[in-house]
């Protein structure tokens, strides 16, 4: 009989863990927010020519010259699937809107194709 009592207590404790609806988020205290999920595309990327650094962060995109930091392009990106994004950006120099599609082929490389068919490669900077 003594063995049944501990098992009964365990069964009651486990029964309290089973719910019949969706679980509620756990509060982390006033003003606390969980860290946003980081996209595998977010970070700093260098073109093969080494002229500009492109920064992707939370759906935003911009590129700046490597030497002076001058803003070259600004825009946004939208994930198409877990390994592909669509870029939409404005070139300050040409004053034109441009689109590109980029595929994440590894953690450190994206292969991109502009709307006009030209290809370029971006390599993640540490």
TrEMBL record:
It comes from Limoniibacter endophyticus. Belongs to the rhizobiaceae omp10 lipoprotein family. It is a lipid-anchor. The keyword Protein biosynthesis does not apply. It is found in: Cell outer membrane. The keyword Signal applies. Pfam families: OMP10 (PF26368). Keywords: Cell outer membrane, Lipoprotein, Membrane, Palmitate, Signal. This is Outer membrane lipoprotein Omp16.
């Amino acid at each position: 009989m003594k063995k049944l009592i501990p098992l009964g207590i365990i069964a009651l404790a486990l029964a309290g863990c089973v719910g019949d609806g969706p679980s509620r988020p756990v509060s982390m205290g006033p003003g606390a927010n969980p860290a946003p999920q980081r996209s595998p595309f977010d970070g700093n990327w260098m073109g093969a020519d080494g002229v500009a650094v492109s920064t992707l962060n939370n759906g935003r995109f911009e590129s700046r010259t490597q030497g002076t930091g001058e803003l070259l392009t600004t825009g946004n990106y939208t994930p198409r699937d877990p390994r592909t994004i669509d870029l939409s950006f404005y070139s300050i120099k040409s004053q034109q809107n441009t689109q590109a599609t980029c595929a994440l082929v590894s953690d450190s490389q994206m292969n991109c194709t502009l709307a006009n068919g030209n290809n370029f490669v971006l390599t993640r900077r540490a």
